[in-house]
Amino acid sequence: VQLVESGGGLVQPGGSLRLSCVASGLVLSDYAMAWIRQAPGAGLEWITGLNDRGGDIWYADSVKGRFTISRDNAKNMLYLQMNSLKPEDTAVYYCAANFRRVGVSALLYEYDYWGQGTQVTVSS
Predict the structure, then answer these.
(1) Among 30, 41, 4, 1, which residue's Cα sits nearest to residue 19?
(2) Which end of the chain offers a freer environment for a tag, N or C, measured as fewer CB atoms within 10 Å?
(3) What digits encode the pLDDT tens for the residues 89-124?
(4) Distance CA 98, CA 91 (A)
């Protein structure tokens, strides 16, 4: 199983980025998915997740109204549209997969597979 993130980079405050995560070696529709980030010197933060079909979506308060998670199971892809970026959004962003049939988990230990991460830096 492999999850590979892309789309990170340097962006000015107020700007946008779209992250992508391609999954291989698993059937993505069997998994709830999430984006998790780690800011410099901080712990891991679950920021958003959605269930296997994408109809049940949750956001952390820190990103609600600015970030949008989506998935395309046919393409084995997960996305994160990030708008109105702030310096405090600077972090390594990871996609993660949780094998489950119902709902979305915000518990990091429940995620079975993780990508290697992509760096997002928000700075002027």
Answers:
(1) 4
(2) C
(3) 999 999 999 998 688 999 999 999 999 999 999 999
(4) 22
- State the Cα–Cα distance between residues 79 and 41, nearest whole angstrom: 25
Q: CB-based contacts of 97: which residues, under 8 Å, 6+ apart?
A: 1, 3, 23, 26, 28, 31, 32, 33, 111, 112, 113, 114
Dump pLDDT digits (tens) for 62-71: 999 999 999 9
**Residue closest to 80 by CA, chosen among 50, 123, 45, 113:** 50
73-111 burial, b if ≥16 CB within 10 A, otherwise e?
beebbbbbebeebeeebbbbbbbbbbeeeeebbeebeeb
Residue 100 is predicted with a pLDDT of: 81
Residue 32 is encoded by which pair of tokens?
């709830």
| DSSP-based three-state secondary structure for 83 | coil
Give pLDDT, residue 80. 98
